[in-house]
Amino acid sequence: MTSPAQADLVIVANRLPVDRVTAPDGSPAWRRSPGGLVTALEPVMRAEDGAWIGWPGSSDDDDFEPFVEDGLSLIPVPMSAQEVEEFYEGFSNGTLWPLYHDLVAKPEFHREWWESYVAVNQRFADKAAQVAADGATVWVQDYQLQLVPQMLRQQRPDLRIGFYLHIPFPPAELFSQLPWRRQILEGLLGADLIGFQLPGAAANFVRLVRSRVGHKTHRDTIYLPDGRPVKATAFPISIDTAGFEELARSEGVERRAKEIREALGDPRCIFLGVDRLDYTKGIYSRLRAFGELIRDGKLDLEDAVFVQVATPSRERVEQYRILRDDIERLVGGINGDHGRIGRPAISYLHTSHPREEMAALYRAADIMVVTPFRDGMNLVAKEYVACRFDNDGALVLSEFAGAAAELRQAWLVNPYDIDGMKAMLLEAFAADSKERGRRMRAMRKTVLQHDVAKWAEDFLRDLEAVPEHHDKSVRRPRAK
Ligand code: GDG
Q: Name one Pfam family in it (predicted).
């Protein structure tokens, strides 16, 4: 294992890929945390034997020594309770998250949140500067850390710095609302390569840099005044497709999928939703559409049930608490009006599950319903496809998920159009196995060819290929 002080590949992400938990005997322990980022990056980390810098997820822990967990070299960055509130819940999730997701909720702008964002980004950059070996590659992840590339480059001009944005990058009209828009753009420009989920997001960024910062641009390259090029390109993220398929094929998962179907009363059709409980995911509208189909007699409870897994997320942010209440009231109403003893219309689970259980749910589900109002990619859609080695099952997918650009054979819906969504749910319900197979085979081909290993390989290869700064003296080894 490479010692953290000389890692050649350093991942910098808001969270470590583990959570601090208390074991039943009261001792502290670590547990793998769910979420798109962890799922996507873990295989890369293992393959490259790198170090991962991130916040361990609790503010009252005073043990911040680097450690190795399950073969991963992890370097914790501390955060005070006030910083969790202002940097994480505040600026990251109360300002940037809604602003970058089409204003699905109203972003709040507070100067003290911004100050906290700057301070925490500086701490991450300082840590990366300590850990990276001479000439190392540092790959900074996501919207919480957009200032890190520039802060890091100021201290360590010898590094190759990449940045990847997992969420959408908004059009200029929306981004321009941000009082600190210029600082964010300049922060990102510290990188050699900035990756986005879709070409449209990369184009939004290049256009903004040209108009707001005034740098010269040509196609996907920005030229800084000192001649250093910065590339902004799309790298659609993916999943460990083979790993998911293998899990789905295992005897345990197969048995569990059968159990799930039986527990639901062996209906003809199981609809499934799996999301973090987030207002961007369109959970409320999709359940409403399903509830109306039952109410209108278009679907019968003997034929169709809905399973919604809503993983707890950002529970201290008010908008998330309100959303949870709204969804739970809706589910209660639909089940109260239409459910029968032992047969609720919607089985709603506000809990986190092991990967095996997720695979079993994907195997058990006839129709996977993924209807975000805006989503960078959406890995759940790809995971469902990966698990359907039988070439069966239907995917209903929002056209506003990044995944829709690749999974063109899904039943595509506009999640703002409830009637349209109802019609598409019925269409998927009525599709025969030939039609389902035709679509699923095409989607599986895409997901098998473009997995997360390829995503990381493409990004890291392009990062190495960005031409060096014309002034070679800048990429000198760090003074010892
Ligand atoms: C962000 C962007 C982008 C969920 N619940 C459990 C669980 N999960 C796993 C899923 C999936 C991941 O979490 C969720 O990924 P998504 O892509 O669907 O959504 P976000 O969390 O919003 O991710 C998104 C992604 O970053 C990657 O770039 O696609 O657009 O918003 O892998 O399976 N996993 C387990 N138990 C759960 O209860 N084990």
A: Glyco_transf_20
Give mean pLDDT, residues 271-279: 97
Assigned domain for 480 exists: no
Give the domain extent around 216: 7-237+455-473
The Cα 194–Cα 191 span in angstroms is 6
Residue to mutate (ligand 1; options 144, 247, 276, 323; most atoms within 8 A of CB): 276
CATH of the domain at 397: 3.40.50.2000
Whole-prediction pTM: 0.94
Q: Kindly report the protein residue whose alpha carbon is nearest to atom 10 of ligand 1.
A: 380
If asked whether residues 371 and 469 sit together in one domain, one would say: no
Q: Is 86 close to ligand 1, i.e. is its CB under 6 Å away?
A: no
The DSSP element (H or E) to which 305 belongs, if any, is: strand 304-311
Is residue 17, in this structure, part of any structural domain at all? yes
- For residue 337, the tally of other CB atoms under 10 A from its CB is 11
Q: Same structural domain for residues 355 and 403? A: yes
The string of pLDDT tens digits covering residues 82-136 is: 999 999 999 999 999 999 999 999 999 999 999 999 999 999 999 999 999 999 9
Take residue 450 and report the two structure tokens written for it: 């473009």
